[in-house]
Amino acid sequence: MKTIIIFLLAGLSGVLYAQDSDYLEHPGYIDFRDFLNFNPEDAKTEIEISNPLLSIVADASKDEDQELSSFLKGLKLIKVYSFEIDSNQVRDIKSQIDRIDSKMQKQHWNRFVRVREKDEVTNIYLKSVDKTIVGLTLLSVNCTETVFINIVGHINLDSVSKLGTKFNIPQLDSVKVQ
Predict the structure, then answer these.
(1) Domain spans in the chain, listed from the N-terminal domain onward
(2) Tens digits of per-residue pLDDT, 68-120?
(3) Are 147 and 172 in contact (CB under 8 A)?
(4) Which pTM was predicted?
(5) Contact indicator for 113, 122 with CB cutoff of 8 Å
(6) Contact status, residue 124 vs residue 138, Cβ threshold 8 Å
(7) How crowded is residue 83: how many other Cβ atoms within 10 Å of its Cβ?
(8) I need a labelling partner for 21 at 20 to 30 A (CA). Which of 29, 50, 61, 117 fits?
(9) Closest to 56 in 3D by CA, of 96, 19, 14, 13
(10) In whole angstroms, how far apart are CA 95 and each of 36, 48, 102, 112, 120?
Protein backbone atom coordinates (compact mmCIF):
# COMPACT_ATOMS: atom_id res chain seq x y z
CA MET A 1 0.00 0.00 0.00
CA LYS A 2 2.87 2.41 0.84
CA THR A 3 4.36 1.78 -2.58
CA ILE A 4 1.09 2.67 -4.30
CA ILE A 5 0.72 5.87 -2.26
CA ILE A 6 4.31 6.91 -2.95
CA PHE A 7 3.85 6.18 -6.65
CA LEU A 8 0.62 8.22 -6.77
CA LEU A 9 2.18 11.15 -4.89
CA ALA A 10 5.22 11.12 -7.17
CA GLY A 11 3.00 11.04 -10.25
CA LEU A 12 0.75 13.79 -8.91
CA SER A 13 3.69 16.03 -8.05
CA GLY A 14 4.99 15.60 -11.61
CA VAL A 15 1.60 16.56 -13.04
CA LEU A 16 1.33 19.60 -10.76
CA TYR A 17 4.86 20.69 -11.67
CA ALA A 18 4.08 20.33 -15.38
CA GLN A 19 0.88 22.34 -14.94
CA ASP A 20 2.69 24.93 -12.87
CA SER A 21 5.41 25.56 -15.43
CA ASP A 22 3.56 24.96 -18.69
CA TYR A 23 3.49 28.73 -19.26
CA LEU A 24 7.29 29.00 -19.56
CA GLU A 25 7.26 28.13 -23.27
CA HIS A 26 3.99 29.95 -23.97
CA PRO A 27 4.33 32.78 -26.54
CA GLY A 28 2.61 35.22 -24.16
CA TYR A 29 5.13 34.66 -21.35
CA ILE A 30 7.78 37.24 -20.55
CA ASP A 31 10.63 36.42 -18.19
CA PHE A 32 11.23 39.87 -16.73
CA ARG A 33 14.67 38.80 -15.52
CA ASP A 34 15.77 38.82 -19.18
CA PHE A 35 15.00 42.53 -19.38
CA LEU A 36 15.26 44.11 -15.97
CA ASN A 37 17.90 45.15 -13.51
CA PHE A 38 15.53 44.36 -10.64
CA ASN A 39 15.70 41.29 -8.48
CA PRO A 40 12.17 39.83 -8.08
CA GLU A 41 12.99 39.09 -4.45
CA ASP A 42 13.26 42.84 -3.82
CA ALA A 43 9.69 43.43 -4.97
CA LYS A 44 7.37 45.36 -2.66
CA THR A 45 4.52 43.34 -4.17
CA GLU A 46 4.89 40.03 -5.94
CA ILE A 47 1.88 38.18 -7.28
CA GLU A 48 2.25 34.96 -9.23
CA ILE A 49 -0.93 33.02 -9.82
CA SER A 50 -0.89 30.01 -12.10
CA ASN A 51 -2.78 26.74 -12.37
CA PRO A 52 -4.24 24.99 -10.50
CA LEU A 53 -4.97 28.12 -8.41
CA LEU A 54 -6.37 30.03 -11.40
CA SER A 55 -8.82 27.20 -12.03
CA ILE A 56 -9.88 27.18 -8.38
CA VAL A 57 -10.50 30.94 -8.42
CA ALA A 58 -12.38 30.58 -11.73
CA ASP A 59 -14.65 27.93 -10.23
CA ALA A 60 -15.21 30.01 -7.09
CA SER A 61 -16.12 33.06 -9.23
CA LYS A 62 -18.55 31.18 -11.46
CA ASP A 63 -21.73 32.15 -9.57
CA GLU A 64 -20.62 35.73 -8.95
CA ASP A 65 -19.34 36.58 -12.47
CA GLN A 66 -19.56 33.99 -15.26
CA GLU A 67 -17.60 36.17 -17.71
CA LEU A 68 -14.68 36.56 -15.29
CA SER A 69 -14.78 32.85 -14.49
CA SER A 70 -14.53 31.94 -18.18
CA PHE A 71 -11.71 34.42 -18.64
CA LEU A 72 -9.74 32.98 -15.71
CA LYS A 73 -10.13 29.45 -17.07
CA GLY A 74 -8.32 30.55 -20.23
CA LEU A 75 -5.33 31.95 -18.35
CA LYS A 76 -2.10 30.19 -17.50
CA LEU A 77 -0.35 32.87 -15.42
CA ILE A 78 -0.81 36.27 -13.81
CA LYS A 79 2.49 37.76 -12.67
CA VAL A 80 2.91 41.17 -11.04
CA TYR A 81 6.04 42.78 -9.64
CA SER A 82 5.97 46.18 -7.96
CA PHE A 83 9.12 47.91 -6.72
CA GLU A 84 9.48 51.04 -4.62
CA ILE A 85 11.88 53.51 -6.16
CA ASP A 86 13.06 57.01 -5.43
CA SER A 87 12.81 59.89 -7.85
CA ASN A 88 16.48 59.78 -8.87
CA GLN A 89 15.92 56.28 -10.38
CA VAL A 90 13.09 57.34 -12.70
CA ARG A 91 15.30 58.46 -15.60
CA ASP A 92 17.26 55.18 -15.60
CA ILE A 93 14.11 53.09 -15.43
CA LYS A 94 12.52 55.08 -18.27
CA SER A 95 15.61 54.30 -20.37
CA GLN A 96 15.33 50.67 -19.37
CA ILE A 97 11.67 50.61 -20.45
CA ASP A 98 12.68 52.11 -23.82
CA ARG A 99 15.21 49.29 -24.29
CA ILE A 100 12.60 46.71 -23.26
CA ASP A 101 10.16 48.29 -25.72
CA SER A 102 12.58 47.71 -28.58
CA LYS A 103 13.23 44.10 -27.56
CA MET A 104 9.54 43.31 -27.14
CA GLN A 105 8.65 44.72 -30.54
CA LYS A 106 11.39 42.57 -32.09
CA GLN A 107 9.68 39.60 -30.41
CA HIS A 108 6.40 40.61 -32.13
CA TRP A 109 4.71 42.18 -29.12
CA ASN A 110 2.47 45.05 -30.20
CA ARG A 111 2.49 48.13 -28.02
CA PHE A 112 -1.06 49.47 -27.98
CA VAL A 113 -0.83 51.96 -25.12
CA ARG A 114 1.99 54.38 -24.46
CA VAL A 115 1.65 57.10 -21.84
CA ARG A 116 4.52 59.55 -21.40
CA GLU A 117 4.15 62.23 -18.81
CA LYS A 118 6.72 64.18 -16.83
CA ASP A 119 7.36 61.56 -14.14
CA GLU A 120 5.48 58.61 -15.59
CA VAL A 121 5.79 56.14 -18.43
CA THR A 122 3.36 53.30 -19.03
CA ASN A 123 3.47 50.86 -21.93
CA ILE A 124 0.97 48.06 -22.52
CA TYR A 125 1.69 45.32 -25.04
CA LEU A 126 -0.27 42.48 -26.61
CA LYS A 127 1.05 39.29 -28.12
CA SER A 128 -1.17 37.60 -30.70
CA VAL A 129 -1.01 34.21 -32.36
CA ASP A 130 -3.48 33.41 -35.14
CA LYS A 131 -5.66 36.43 -34.26
CA THR A 132 -5.92 35.31 -30.61
CA ILE A 133 -4.41 37.44 -27.85
CA VAL A 134 -2.14 35.14 -25.83
CA GLY A 135 -0.20 37.65 -23.74
CA LEU A 136 -0.54 41.06 -22.14
CA THR A 137 2.35 42.92 -20.56
CA LEU A 138 2.35 46.23 -18.72
CA LEU A 139 5.49 48.19 -17.85
CA SER A 140 5.03 51.32 -15.75
CA VAL A 141 7.18 53.72 -13.79
CA ASN A 142 6.36 56.86 -11.80
CA CYS A 143 8.31 58.80 -9.18
CA THR A 144 7.65 56.27 -6.38
CA GLU A 145 7.03 52.89 -7.99
CA THR A 146 7.69 50.72 -10.99
CA VAL A 147 5.31 47.91 -11.96
CA PHE A 148 5.68 44.96 -14.32
CA ILE A 149 2.70 42.75 -15.19
CA ASN A 150 2.48 39.72 -17.46
CA ILE A 151 -0.77 37.85 -18.14
CA VAL A 152 -0.42 34.62 -20.12
CA GLY A 153 -3.14 32.62 -21.85
CA HIS A 154 -6.23 33.28 -23.93
CA ILE A 155 -7.00 36.93 -23.17
CA ASN A 156 -10.28 38.76 -23.58
CA LEU A 157 -9.49 42.47 -23.26
CA ASP A 158 -13.03 43.26 -22.10
CA SER A 159 -12.35 41.16 -18.97
CA VAL A 160 -8.90 42.49 -18.05
CA SER A 161 -10.21 45.37 -15.91
CA LYS A 162 -12.37 42.85 -13.98
CA LEU A 163 -9.19 40.90 -13.33
CA GLY A 164 -7.63 44.04 -11.86
CA THR A 165 -10.58 44.43 -9.53
CA LYS A 166 -10.64 40.74 -8.52
CA PHE A 167 -6.92 40.61 -7.64
CA ASN A 168 -6.51 44.26 -6.55
CA ILE A 169 -4.20 45.22 -9.44
CA PRO A 170 -5.23 48.84 -10.12
CA GLN A 171 -2.88 49.21 -13.10
CA LEU A 172 -5.19 46.88 -15.07
CA ASP A 173 -8.26 49.07 -14.56
CA SER A 174 -7.29 51.21 -17.55
CA VAL A 175 -7.13 48.28 -19.99
CA LYS A 176 -10.49 48.49 -21.71
CA VAL A 177 -11.78 48.05 -25.23
CA GLN A 178 -13.63 51.16 -26.33
Answers:
(1) 26-174
(2) 888 889 999 999 999 998 888 888 888 888 888 999 999 999 998 899 888 88
(3) no
(4) 0.78
(5) yes
(6) yes
(7) 21
(8) 61
(9) 19
(10) 11, 26, 11, 19, 12
Residue closest to 142 by CA, chosen among 79, 84, 81:
84
Q: Using one digit for the tens of pLDDT, what is the confidence trace for 116-168?
A: 888 889 999 999 999 899 999 999 999 899 999 999 999 887 777 666 676 66
Amino acid identity of 154?
A: H
pLDDT in tens, 34-69: 767 777 778 889 889 998 999 998 999 899 888 888
CA distance 97 to 36: 9
- Radius of gyration of the chain from its Cα atoms, rounded to whole angstroms: 18
**CB 105 within 8 Å of CB 137:** no
Q: Is 82 exposed, middle or buried (0-12, 13-18, 19+ CB in 10 A)?
A: middle
